[in-house]
Write a structure and sequence with these properties.
Two copies of one chain form a homodimer.
Chain A lengths: L3 E4 L9 H15 L5 H19 L3 H15 L6 H16 L8 H11 L2 E6 L2 H11 L7 E5 L4 H10 L7 E5 L2 H11 L2 E4 L21 E3 L6 H10 L11
Parallel strand pairs in A: 1-2, 1-4, 2-3, 4-5, 5-6
Helix pairs in contact in A: 1-2, 1-4, 2-3, 3-4, 7-8
């Protein structure tokens, strides 16, 4: 009844947004002497959104957007050594140790005994590959797919590529916009595990709570039991979502 | 006898290194007022190589390395508006129109009638995807693989993934280091079509000219006839390479 359980990676398997948040805090501090600390994060977000269609997702584009924002907000007065600090922030993010979320290793290990698992993550190819490799989770996953964005179209082609029927596919992730809504749209199952820090860009309205193919869990530790329940019930029946 | 013909993309299907070269010329010019134009390119290359294991390949990492080099070479005196110009160079590179090499469309079209074709390219995922999409070549290719690097190990896993035997696989590309040597190492066929501009990092010694599974062609227009010849001969016999 379930042929594949796919996991988002950043903020689902391991911490990521905290790295962005702490870098944003340092960026804000860097601009404080220019009396621009207060505007820094709003302006940065707008720069990122403007640059998204040129740079795509990922740390390197984020770094270029920080530099651009710093130049704009300081009217070009930002100093070379300060821009070098921003590049340093990016390098630290790219080489930061992988910190798994609580309970991830246990849940993934348990699920891998009876299910095929895959990772579907978006961002910089090289960065995501090294994170997967460094996570120690590789042995539990049958497939790793790194994509530039997570639209319904992208999921559709991944399902096709791996010969998966949407009704027998489960996606687990922290982003309603990227992990949940597009998968529900295709007729797949989606399990939302919210993360402590949210990126504004990923915000979206929650699906109707009683939708049969959707659930929200508080933590990944609840996942194996939930998947068991999912497997045992008839997928055509509406699901009781405990919330 | 040939199950798949794979093409590198940058400088094999479309021009890429000329974009880097013209950006480097602009970078050098930008630093000339600081009396650092002469060192600029050597220093940039060294910065790129140092950053490769953090940034990987691609335009965004190249841009960050240019910024870092400009700060170092000017002792931090480079101005904000000049760094903004460097970011502008990167954006222009990322949105530049795709210019196919002479004869590519005809050769690819002709080969696609009797062969399965794929693209194997390295670099930024998002950038490479949009280039493939904008190239107009998508209808001729069965598969597109974007990888973070082109080692023998990467080719091995791609061949495995697509169920391809090395002896029935042909790789076509401009880089001895990335397209030719690792494929020959695995027992595959490799056809080298040198490009007019070379990136120092991709330099490598040419394979022995009489190696049966290797050929060098002057241009992609020669490819269909060469593939026909390859298909007709017994793969176990040494190949006469006309050079």
């Amino acid at each position: 009844m379930i042929d594949m359980i796919a996991f988002d990676a950043d903020d689902t398997l391991w911490h990521s947004e905290v790295l962005y948040a702490s870098t944003q805090a340092r960026f804000r501090e860097l601009l404080a002497p220019y009396r621009q600390g207060d505007n820094a994060l709003q302006e940065l977000y707008e720069t990122e959104m403007r640059n998204l269609q040129t740079f795509g997702y990922g740390v390197k584009g984020f770094a270029l957007s920080m530099i651009e924002t710093a130049i704009t907000l300081t009217g070009g007065r930002i100093r070379g050594d300060e821009i070098q600090q921003i590049i340093g922030f990016a390098k630290e993010m790219l080489s930061a140790p992988i910190q798994l979320l609580d309970g991830v290793e246990e849940a993934v290990q348990e699920l891998s005994r009876e299910h095929r698992l895959m990772i579907i993550t978006k961002g910089d190819l090289f960065d995501q590959e090294t994170k997967v490799a460094r996570s120690g989770l590789v042995p539990y996953f049958d497939q790793v797919e790194i994509v530039s964005g997570k639209t319904a179209e992208v999921y559709r082609s991944l399902l096709e590529k791996h010969g998966l029927a949407p009704g027998r596919f489960v996606m687990v992730g922290n982003s309603l916009r990227s992990d949940i809504l597009p998968v529900l749209e295709l007729g797949g199952h989606a399990i939302h595990i919210p993360y402590e820090v949210k990126w504004a860009h990923e915000a979206a309205d929650r699906p109707h709570e009683t939708q049969a193919r959707y659930a929200e869990l508080e933590g990944v530790a609840e996942l194996p039991a939930y998947v068991d329940k999912l497997r045992q019930r008839d997928l055509d029946d509406p699901l009781e979502v405990s919330d």
